[in-house]
Amino acid sequence: MHEDDRKSEFQGAISPLLKKLEQNQHVLAGKEAEMPFICLGKNGDKYVYYSRMSDSRIELKPGEHSKLNLITLASEAWWTEKLGEKWTVTDAAGYCFGQQGRKHYSPDKIRGVGFWKEKSAIIYNAGDRCFTIESGKIIETSNIREEGTIYQRSESLPHPETIPMSDEEGQAIIDYLNSFAWREEMGGLLLSGFLAQGITAGFIDTRAHVWINAPAGTGKTFLVSRLKDLLGNYSLSFTGGTSEAGIRQKIGSGARLVLLDEMEAANQDKYSRQKVEKIMSLVRRATDGETSIIGSKESVPIEFRARSSFLLLSIGNSLQRTADKSRFINLHVRPNKGLESFEKRDDAANKLAGISPGKLIARMMSLASVMATNANLIQQKLSAHPALAGRRAELLGNILAGAYALTHAGIISEPEIDIYTAAMNTGSLDENQETDAERCLREILESRVVGNSETVGQVILNYLHGDSSIERQDAKKLLDGIGISVYRPQGGNGSSQMLFISAQNRQLSNILRDTDWGNCWGDVLRNLPEASWLSEKRVRNSKHKGVVIPIEAVKSLLEFDLSTESQNGDMKET
Predict the structure, then answer these.
(1) Of 3, 207, 267, 537, which residue is 20 to 30 A from 152 by alpha carbon distance?
(2) Alpha carbon of 468 to those of 471, 475, 526: distances in Å?
(3) What is the pTM (predicted TM-score) of this model?
(4) How many CB atoms lie within 10 A of CB 493?
(5) C-alpha pair distances (Å), 328 with each of 145, 217, 284, 400
């Protein structure tokens, strides 16, 4: 069928839906005229509102419902029409409190750009417009949903095109990425699958990240340029000099794919390494969409939840923690050899010319639900491999399902899964899988106690290497309060310092209350290879039982601990 005929058929098919949508928008417009703001619920002692007029979130304490703030929510004429000529601030505040009811605010109620799951539906917030799928067709929809979710307006991202990207065009993407000299057997396929799942990052529960090591002469500059062409402004692009706070603020409440180039950390000064580590902390939390509590200049904690996939590029490998190696697919590009390899890449690049960001997004939007099903099927197969169990299988399942969706529109078959798993060279991928005990320990060390801007790990460093006795005493006092002690056993030398973690402490219980280890961290930490059980240890004049771990065994978790800047930090408050 000719493309013009296909477009005509498509328009004919969706015209009744567009008519219905237009009617709904008229109704919505009437409601907006009647109600210029929505009460999203209560957040602590604040009432949270969404202002349609400014398309922004507004938080007010009960005493902050002044006339100036009230007319920020709605015009004075609207209040007069609603409450009468002699309306007072008390009347208007009472009206606002009445709208609150029993609702509790959740940051998820306001979402930025990207792909999102709304019950069983998919929503694509393109900034200036929102789209969904109905009867297999992509149609425009309202940014204010009946479920109570509001999709925030912002800069315009690529709109899904009428005709999605074809299987052949998807294969062209894979062919282009395969034209690079990957050290890994499936390097090009894995990167193409990562791009597909990265587009749908907000729709899925767990996101993979990729770190590409590309020395000079490998074509990294051409690769980054081509990826930007494919994604348009759907991707956010930064260099390694960008701060974590800048990246976090640019992402906002959205779920766009993030490209970070020149992510070098080796052989740099302490400040540069800390800067990279802050970014890595952001990436870690984006994997599962964990909520972080960010300090502010006004000493008001701000909730932030990252749900982006990150593509990092550098000359060397900066992955150091086991926790990071389980979240990343680490790929390596070798220098090209000879003119033939460059000609092959140029030929593959020319075939990408007709693939617009709108075509690619339309395909990913149409297949997002199928990708989720395929990812689960692939994950089940990968989980049978000891080196790929747990999170690793889940992340690779998402990536391989994304690669499959570029060239296939249906459910993946078992023989096709077998082809993927057989080609998966686990030896060339970092197989380090963080254990449950290691995750528990990291959670403790990367958390902080209410009223203190430093992580537990940073406090331990202060005790070990503090510049003054006062700094060390303050650190000891804080550690004592959470049942943690750093000590040297009798007869031990300087390298035999030990870390004691009490198995029964209220503040530690608070730190871990939203995790799987809230009541059993002591038993879990005993599974660390270097750990031993101590039936009695005196901490702040009290006897405790708990786990003892050599400081050397947790050095990697302490060495790159987070900075203490509360305005820019990404630290979990307990």
Answers:
(1) 207
(2) 5, 11, 33
(3) 0.69
(4) 8
(5) 34, 24, 9, 14
